[in-house]
Amino acid sequence: MLKLDCVSAFVCVAEAGSITAAAQRLGLAKSVVSERLAELEQTLGAQLVQRTTRRSTLTENGRIFLARARRLLSDAEDAVAELAQQGSELIGPLRLSAPVSFGALRLAEPLFAFMRQHPRIELSLELDDHFVDPAADGFDAVVRHGPVLDRRLIAHRLASSMRHLVASPDYLAEAGPVACLEDLSVHRAILYSRRGADWRFEGPDGATVIRPRTALRLNNGLMMRSAALAGLGIALLPSFMVHEDLTAGRLVVIDAGAAPQGAELFVAHPLDRATSSKIKALVTHLRAAFGNPSFWEHTTRQQPRG
């Protein structure tokens, strides 16, 4: 029979990179961690960790088992939390992942308010612009900006977030205004390097694709906003990121005669988290905090005409 303390020791070794580091994290003797790891390998009948004097690396069996080991520990923690839960009080760990820009700009305040309402929740948040697999990576839920196509996940809509072509007034004064999509070809573009370089627009005849001239490629939306504020070119950015800049006039929305394709914000979680009261409460809280329509959709300042 699998023992949870043995599974915990294995996960900690995998994450820490060595038995010594895992022992320090767990507050146990190195010999105890080594014994628990050996007991788990004996129970499973497979070597999980290749040990060296300085570092421990996962075997192929270890890499396969790691995702399930994390899920076993997560399920155990959730079971303890549910048994301990009394009345409407929410208790126990809640592990979230979110995109870097959205997490930094829009999640902090509502999450801190959520924690004040539910002080017995143990929240862990990791910001990552890669598409995280919540089941494999040990998360209860992930925030996604864009469609959730994985059928293993249940998605709850949080808010809308239009995308805008934006630039600084100084850049447009120097480079000239944009009256139509064709005008974009002579402007400098600040592009997101994790996606294709195309800009897509909705029109009466369907989608139109523009391949702008690249001035700068960045893998972070906040850096793209900073580049636009610095007058380096035009960027296609979500409204949640530029709301205050548009209100203050530091950036303006470029009307090229067609609307950029928008996106929705979701909280997505594995099927086995469908009954989680913590996730349900979080989704309800975030929806109320963002509003419908979301507060960042209310103000846009257009480029000057003429």
UniProtKB/TrEMBL annotation:
<dbReference type="InterPro" id="IPR005119">
    <property type="entry name" value="LysR_subst-bd"/>
</dbReference>
<dbReference type="GO" id="GO:0043565">
    <property type="term" value="F:sequence-specific DNA binding"/>
</dbReference>
<protein>
    <submittedName>
        <fullName>LysR family transcriptional regulator</fullName>
    </submittedName>
</protein>
<dbReference type="InterPro" id="IPR036390">
    <property type="entry name" value="WH_DNA-bd_sf"/>
</dbReference>
<dbReference type="InterPro" id="IPR036388">
    <property type="entry name" value="WH-like_DNA-bd_sf"/>
</dbReference>
<dbReference type="GO" id="GO:0006351">
    <property type="term" value="P:DNA-templated transcription"/>
</dbReference>
<dbReference type="Pfam" id="PF03466">
    <property type="entry name" value="LysR_substrate"/>
</dbReference>
<keyword id="KW-0238">DNA-binding</keyword>
<comment type="similarity">
    <text>Belongs to the LysR transcriptional regulatory family.</text>
</comment>
<dbReference type="Pfam" id="PF00126">
    <property type="entry name" value="HTH_1"/>
</dbReference>
<dbReference type="GO" id="GO:0003700">
    <property type="term" value="F:DNA-binding transcription factor activity"/>
</dbReference>
<dbReference type="InterPro" id="IPR000847">
    <property type="entry name" value="LysR_HTH_N"/>
</dbReference>
<keyword id="KW-0805">Transcription regulation</keyword>
<keyword id="KW-0804">Transcription</keyword>
<dbReference type="InterPro" id="IPR058163">
    <property type="entry name" value="LysR-type_TF_proteobact-type"/>
</dbReference>
<feature type="domain" description="HTH lysR-type">
    <location>
        <begin position="2"/>
        <end position="59"/>
    </location>
</feature>
